[in-house]
Specification:
The chain has about 325 residues and is an alpha+beta fold. The protein is about 30% helix and about 30% strand. The strands form two sheets. Strands 1, 2, 3, 4, 5, 6, 8 and 12 form an eight-stranded mixed sheet that branches. α1 links the parallel β3 and β4. The longest helix has 17 residues. The two termini are about 20 Å apart. Bound molecules: cytidine-5'-monophosphate.
């Protein structure tokens, strides 16, 4: 890591380079209605997203110019990963990339471009609490955190609207962790509006070995589909009315019964063991159980924190999960610490 500013001046003892740390939340889709594949390859969705209290923390530090300084790109970045997804075989979707294919690095570049900055050098340290390639939008949380952190570090003062537009360019799920809370998403999932949600919810997440790639789950969803129709004959995403009505009541049992994910069946076809984890959670008394996003994490809704602790202990004892996490929701969006 750099110990000097890029001016090359000798740092005074105790000098530390400017740095900003941002915390961003994971998400669970309470509803994920998926329509037919569009001409651009994406699927029209109607989704209800809830930010949950599992977080990644991203620290961006001014660094020494790397080898690409001078006529190099607007931003050079070194990346350090700790926590979830820090180690594993190269090419495994559950291992976080450290090059320019890292979504947080691309986010830093977009902030520099939007603000007309050049010759920026940063070190990104990502402490990951969100499982990787798990259907909880961890990469999107990192990208959202990087947008906020670079805007703060460089004093670029980009508006929330501009940050949200940059987020949507990075991925369908990136605008949501900027905002947090509970939101309805349409289009690719990136067009968000606030949802009236009462009360707090208590979740248990069963983490799985290895990741599932989102495009592969959407491809499986498309198997058997015909032009303009999903495999089950729909021309539109499944509507979210039941989940929206449940959120307005604040009753976890009503929400648990309304949870819906059109990607669940294709995710289970790719990973049959997920069906066993869901069944175990239901047997243990979860109010609702579903695959989170495109999986392979499974999500279980509890009555309250104590019930969540019981569910977590039961799922851990079943041996069906790599690890189990408890989290409350809704959680706030990306926040400078
Ligand atoms: O937007 P993002 O890059 O995160 O999407 C990753 C992939 O997920 C897309 O390339 C596409 O295969 C799939 N996807 C989709 N429909 C959506 C969102 C994502 O088909 N609404």
């Amino acid at each position: 890591m750099s110990t000097e500013l890029s001016t090359g001046s000798t740092p005074s003892p105790g000098f530390s380079p400017p740095r900003v740390t941002v915390r961003a939340p994971a998400k669970v889709n309470l509803h994920l209605g998926v329509g037919p594949r569009r001409a651009d390859g994406y699927h029209e969705v109607v989704t209800v997203l809830q930010a949950v209290g599992l977080y990644d923390e991203l620290t961006v530090t001014e660094a020494e110019p790397g080898e690409a300084a001078g006529d190099g790109p607007a931003v050079t970045a070194t990346v350090e990963i700790s926590g979830e997804g820090a180690v594993g075989p190269a090419g495994d979707p559950a291992v976080v990339p450290t090059g320019t294919d890292n979504l947080a690095v691309r986010a830093a570049l977009l902030v520099a471009e939007a603000a007309g900055l050049r010759d920026r050098h940063i070190h990104l340290a990502m402490a990951k609490g969100i499982p990787v390639a798990a259907g909880m939008a961890g990469g999107s949380a990192d990208a959202a955190a990087a947008l906020v952190a670079c805007d703060e570090l460089w004093g670029t003062g980009l508006s929330t609207q501009t940050l949200t537009e940059l987020a949507a360019r990075l991925g369908s799920d990136v605008p949501f962790p900027l905002a947090g809370g509970t939101a309805l998403g349409v289009g690719r999932g990136e067009q968000l509006s606030l949802v009236a949600s009462v009360g707090d919810y208590h979740w248990v997440f069963a983490l799985a070995d290895g990741g599932l790639s989102t495009p592969s789950v959407y491809r499986e969803f498309d198997s058997g589909a015909t032009e303009g129709r999903t495999a089950d004959g729909r021309t539109e995403p499944t509507p979210a009315d039941a989940v929206l009505a449940a959120l307005a009541t604040g009753d976890p049992a009503t929400l648990g019964a309304a949870l819906c994910n059109d990607l669940q069946a294709p995710a289970i076809r790719l990973r049959p063991a997920l069906g066993d984890v869901l069944a175990e959670g239901r047997t243990l008394g979860a109010l609702g159980a579903l695959v989170s996003g495109s999986g392979p994490t499974t999500a279980f809704l509890a009555r309250d924190a104590a019930h969540g602790a019981d569910l977590a202990a039961g799922l851990a004892a079943s041996g069906l999960a790599r690890a189990v996490r408890q989290a409350s929701a809704p959680a706030p969006g990306a926040t400078v610490l």
